[in-house]
Design a protein that fits this description.
With 322 residues, this protein is an alpha+beta fold. It contains seven helices and 19 strands. The strands form five sheets. Strands 1-2-6-7-10-15-16-17-19 form a nine-stranded mixed β-sheet, with helices on one face. Strands 3-5-4 form a three-stranded antiparallel β-sheet. Strands 8-9-18 form a three-stranded antiparallel β-sheet, with no helix packed on it. β11 and β12 form a beta hairpin. 44% of the residues are buried. The structure holds adenosine-5'-diphosphate and magnesium ion.
Length: 322
């Protein structure tokens, strides 16, 4: 006899460290345990392909190629294509060629945090230009002195790829959290919406509120994740404005993007953070296909109409139509 229950399956969890962050994956169903370990291997494979520190990665090969073409793997091509579309549509607010600038500030490669001089920033700006990336078949070329970095989109892509593995293994219900990049599959075990907590950017240990979502990706970007305080007392965050090569100061404390896949949501969360409130709304008008939750520096929560959000903070909420 079949038991008819709301909560039929056992939950399996895998937790690990990859891509410089803590990751957890929960899945329900018969084959979940094996499926999760395969999904974890897939994340590690992607890390080896796109890390900027692993000598065997596509990005290390490209960044050290001195302007020569390099054959890259399918994952790298896919990231370049989708993230490249967001880069273009956002007028370069998302840039895959920011590595030299991120290094100069000490945000990449384990260097010390520092504030580059105006002259140095001006030199760096000449090395940040995604239109100089050329793709021909599976060969990619970037100019000498340029550097590719998928830091803004890699975890989102990995969340999609891990989800594909789970689906191939027969899993129908899962939720992944790859360092703040949340990706859901199917419905929560027992039915109903997934509840995704959004952090309060002013107090990251506290929950801002809960988003109720279906199968999608929920990704948050904010400068509270990684920053340093300069000798001038100012806070310098790790999301850079490619136009200035300095930390983005757009009036936003955090951006949460909700989209149908993780790569897109991750690309958007970073791009919209750089664009700021007006730019983000304009981007949504022009492109659509996602929902967003913005927290302004002034302490207001702005939501697009498609989101279901339960506010758990003191901050006021306003629904904004793009
Ligand atoms: P997190 O890595 O904290 O989840 P993001 O997805 O917003 O946050 O990615 C930020 C990372 O992406 C930075 O650490 C840096 O490596 C890189 N980055 C910073 N600014 C940009 C930008 N404007 N476009 C693309 N990549 C960026
Ligand atoms: Mg991102």
């Amino acid at each position: 006899m079949l038991a008819l229950t709301g909560c039929a399956e056992e939950k399996h969890t895998q937790a690990f460290f990859a891509m410089d962050t803590y990751m957890t994956m929960d899945a329900w169903g018969e084959n979940a345990e094996t499926a999760l370990s395969r999904a974890g291997e897939r994340v590690e494979e992607i890390e080896r392909e796109i890390s900027v520190t692993d000598a065997g990665s596509d990005l290390s090969a490209l960044n050290g190629a001195g302007g020569e073409p390099v054959r890259v793997r399918a994952d790298t091509l896919e990231i370049l294509k989708t993230a490249g579309e967001v880069s273009e549509a956002s007028g370069g607010a998302l840039s895959l060629t920011l590595l030299p600038a991120a290094r100069a500030w000490g945000f990449s490669g384990g260097g010390e945090y520092r504030i580059p001089s105006p002259a140095e920033l001006s030199d760096l700006r000449a090395k940040v230009d995604d239109s100089k990336i050329t793709v021909s078949g599976d060969f990619v070329t970037i100019p000498e002195g340029f550097g590719l970095d998928f830091g803004a989109v890699g975890k989102g892509f990995a969340s999609d790829a891990a989800l594909e593995v789970l689906k191939d293994e027969g899993v129908q219900s899962a939720v992944l959290n790859l360092g703040g990049n949340v990706r859901t599959l199917g419905q929560k075990d027992g039915g109903g919406a997934w509840e995704v907590a959004v952090k309060n950017p002013f107090e990251p240990s506290r929950t801002l509120g809960i988003l109720s979502v279906g199968e999608c990706a929920v990704v948050t970007s904010g400068n509270y994740e990684r920053y340093f305080e300069g000798e001038d007392g100012q806070i310098y965050g790790h999301i850079l404005d490619p136009k200035t090569c300095a930390p983005a100061r757009s009036g936003l404390a955090s951006v949460t993007a909700v989209a149908e896949n993780g790569l897109l949501a991750d690309a958007l969360s970073t791009a919209l953070f750089v664009l700021g409130e007006d730019g983000a709304l304009e981007y949504a008008r022009q492109n659509g296909g996602f929902e967003m939750l913005l927290v302004t520096d002034a302490g207001e929560i702005l939501l697009t109409p498609g989101l279901v959000f339960e506010n758990r903070s003191e901050l006021p909420v306003k629904v904004v139509k793009p």
